[in-house]
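Hypothesis: this fold can be encoded by more than one sequence.
Test: take the structure tokens below, design a sequence, compare later.
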């Protein structure tokens, strides 16, 4: 409503603060144009270094399939999505993930992070039971070594996601 414009300001104060509604919102402070400026170079990188988007998709899909096979074998669990529906973002239950306490996902992520492993850990309904899982993000900058390291770190916890992972949480809080 135009009659309310003088009551509204952008959340980030910038150069045009106090110069009226239209100017204040035309450029907000901390606006970063680098993403827009890098689009052409990103497409060139994908085409020339990665040999095109089809190659990128193929690499990511193959990596996801290999990672799922590895983790299913190492952990004795089964990927939630079937091969045709997981893309490069498979979700795999952790061993004994159905027995994990509430809040374990944050502690497990912290434990992994302290061990230089970035992974998204979440609770997912699996056969009607909330189960602690990891969602992989298979990208062109990942390799199988990343998932081998993840497999070993999770096995080291021996399904004790509440207390074992709490040590990682404490280390992260004081890091």
């Amino acid at each position: 409503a135009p009659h309310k414009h003088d009551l509204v300001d952008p959340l980030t104060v910038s150069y045009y603060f106090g110069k009226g509604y239209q100017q204040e919102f035309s450029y907000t402070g901390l606006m970063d144009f680098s993403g827009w400026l890098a689009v052409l170079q990103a497409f060139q990188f994908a085409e020339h270094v990665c040999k095109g988007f089809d190659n990128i998709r193929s690499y990511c899909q193959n990596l996801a399939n290999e990672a799922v096979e590895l983790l299913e074998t190492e952990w004795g669990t089964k990927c939630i999505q079937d091969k045709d529906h997981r893309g490069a973002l498979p979700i795999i239950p952790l061993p004994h993930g159905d027995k994990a306490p509430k809040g374990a996902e944050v502690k497990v992520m912290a434990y992994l992070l302290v061990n230089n492993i970035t992974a998204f850990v979440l609770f997912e309904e699996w056969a009607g039971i909330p189960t602690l899982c990891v969602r992989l993000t298979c990208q062109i900058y990942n390799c199988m070594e990343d998932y081998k390291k993840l497999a070993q770190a999770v096995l080291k916890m021996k399904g004790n996601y509440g207390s074992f992972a709490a040590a990682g949480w404490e280390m992260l809080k004081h890091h």
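The longest strand covers residues 120-126. The CA atoms of residues 79 and 92 lie 4 Å apart.
Hypothesis status: open.
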